[in-house]
Write a structure and sequence with these properties.
368 residues; alpha/beta; Glutaredoxin; 2 domains; 8-stranded mixed sheet; 5-stranded mixed sheet; 15 strands; 21% strand; elongated
């Protein structure tokens, strides 16, 4: 059944993309004898994953280690879009693995397909190549600048070289415990079993994971110009208070910020430790870090309170998910969202409520 599914997907791909002149050498390379071991462990220190900038099939800028590998079990294969034979089969096998693992892909397990031909493989080409295989969340096709991808491939033991010369190697790695396994990508069962062995039992549903998946962990900037990942750097393991503002607001924003400054005083040393306060700009095109810092300094903001901005493609989806997005910058939400990220308990309070009421609401979540 798995073979017929893979063959069917490959046939779809072949009907979409005809073979080209250099495929013959590529096909001959894959007719050569395979390594004797279909699954082979590799020394833990043998591979170091670089955190290089890459682009995914949707053109999003990511960091390879931080955004795709960190904290997960991954299977990494190597493809190029002008290949019309083995690469579609390898990708169809990843599709089979994705279906078998279901919701685990995108949570504790990730699939990564790295182009070995970055000069040709733009995000648009990767998108077109991947579409017939219906990659879901957690399966990323990767390209980037040729020097960066060459470095990545070198670290992963796959030289850039000619696309015709690459093999069917799949790397499996659990970033939490270390260790690498080389797997013959021609057999989806081997890849599936290696991933399950490396990842261990499926994790129990957790509130923090659900929050991270919902908020998408965008890359933002603090008032000090520091790059942060919204969930990983500011929310994970914390109780959070989130509000919405813009620096050019002369009405509710100054009053609300002054009110929250009193809340920060009441919360004391908890802020910056177990509690983070977050003010999201609803006007990211105007509110750069310098403007946010000048605004925050007017209210004596202390450490642990982050005023955030970012590129609209990063921050706008987050604002929408939190019901804070607006096209009328003077008509934004004056609600404070309070949540215990680990327990999944969330509530809302009016931003101009008594500071003691807001502080008690935050501290009450510490025990829930």
């Amino acid at each position: 059944m798995r073979r017929s599914m893979a063959a069917g997907l490959a046939a779809i791909w072949l009907a979409t993309f005809p073979a080209n002149a250099h495929d013959t050498a590529h096909d001959m390379a894959h007719d050569m004898p395979r390594a004797s071991a279909a699954v082979a462990p590799v020394a833990k220190a043998a591979i170091t994953v670089p955190d290089i900038p890459v682009l995914d099939q949707d053109g999003r800028r990511l960091n390879f280690y931080r955004d795709l590998v960190r904290g997960r079990t991954v299977a990494i294969d190597f493809i190029f879009t002008s290949c019309s034979t083995f690469c579609p089969m390898l990708t169809a096998n990843f599709r089979t693995v994705q279906q078998q693992l279901e919701a685990r892909v995108g949570k504790d397990i990730a699939l990564i397909s790295v182009s070995i031909d970055p000069f040709t493989d733009t995000p648009a080409r990767l998108k077109e190549f991947s579409a017939p295989f219906e990659p879901g969340p957690g399966w990323t096709f990767v390209t980037g600048s040729q020097p960066d991808i060459a470095m990545l491939l070198d670290k992963l033991g796959q030289p850039l070289g000619s696309p015709n010369d690459h093999g069917q190697l799949v790397l499996v790695h659990n970033d939490k415990v270390g260790g690498w396994t080389h797997v013959d990508g021609d057999d989806p069962k081997l890849v599936h079993d290696a991933l399950v062995d490396a990842a261990g039992p499926a994790p129990k549903a957790d509130a923090a994971g659900a929050a991270r998946a919902y908020m998408q962990n965008p890359q933002l900037l603090t008032q000090d110009g520091r790059e942060v990942r919204f969930f990983d750097d500011l929310l994970s393991g914390k109780i959070v208070l989130i509000n919405f503002m813009l620096t050019t607001c002369n009405d509710i924003c100054p009053m609300l910020t002054e009110n929250l400054a009193r809340v920060q005083t009441l919360l004391g040393d908890n802020v910056g430790r177990s509690i983070n306060m977050i003010s999201l700009s609803v006007d990211p095109q105007h509110d750069d870090p310098a403007k946010l810092k000048a605004f925050a300094d007017n209210f004596g903001v202390k450490p642990g309170w982050y005023f955030l901005t970012g590129a609209p493609p990063e921050i706008d989806p987050l604002l929408r998910r939190l019901a804070g997005y607006t096209t009328d910058r003077l008509d934004h939400s004056n609600v404070v969202i309070i949540g215990n990220v680990e327990t999944g308990v969330w509530t809302k309070v009016f931003g101009m409520a008594e500071p003691s009421v807001i502080a008690r609401a935050a501290l009450a979540l510490a025990s829930r």
